[in-house]
């Protein structure tokens, strides 16, 4: 009479584990193969240029001297999208110095890894202040918040304008004297310094 073969519990557990691990290994392998075949990673290629010079997304600008009737100042950065996806565009003012007064925004503190102070302005608040609270106007303009794929092209423009006649003679005189005095005391310093961060991200549209 043949003896019945008895599978010990330990062997049974071992066989189950072996089968499970082989099945899992096949599943992972099959998934990887399938991904390699079906997934296409879209190219992401953004170029920033000022004139013919490539620039980074952190823009530091210095305006040496300011005075009523000064020639309008303009600095333009062109963004080129050579990607297979469209892009969303934005910017943040991180810092600005007007003569001897320096402002660091909430976003600027974050970029520095610092905690924002109670008196810090946001980028939007500082942008409004720079455009409206002085006899001169400092502006940051973006031609569009969306850039097309493959051959998209948009511009960031930072400008400073101080008209000779703006019907605010007293304010012009006060700030004109302050600007001249600051420059005499700090001949190697710029009158205005501004730091802007350009952000361009892949669009969900």
Kindly summarize this structure in a few lines.
This protein has 205 residues and is α+β, with helices and mostly antiparallel strands. 31% of the residues lie in helices and 33% in strands. The protein is globular and about 90 Å long.
Any chance you could write out the topology, listing elements then pairs?
Elements: H1 9-38, E1 46-50, E2 53-54, E3 58-63, E4 73-81, E5 87-98, E6 101-104, H2 106-112, H3 123-132, E7 137-142, E8 146-147, E9 152-161, H4 169-185, E10 192-202
Antiparallel strand pairs: 1-2, 1-4, 3-10, 4-9, 5-6, 5-8, 5-10, 7-9
What does this molecule look like?
The structure is a single chain. The chain has 205 residues and is an alpha+beta fold. It has 2 domains: 7-39; 46-202, no CATH class. Helices cover 31% and strands 33% of the residues. The strands form 2 sheets. It has a 5-stranded antiparallel β-sheet with strand order 2-1-4-9-7. The model is unreliable at 21-36 (pLDDT under 50).
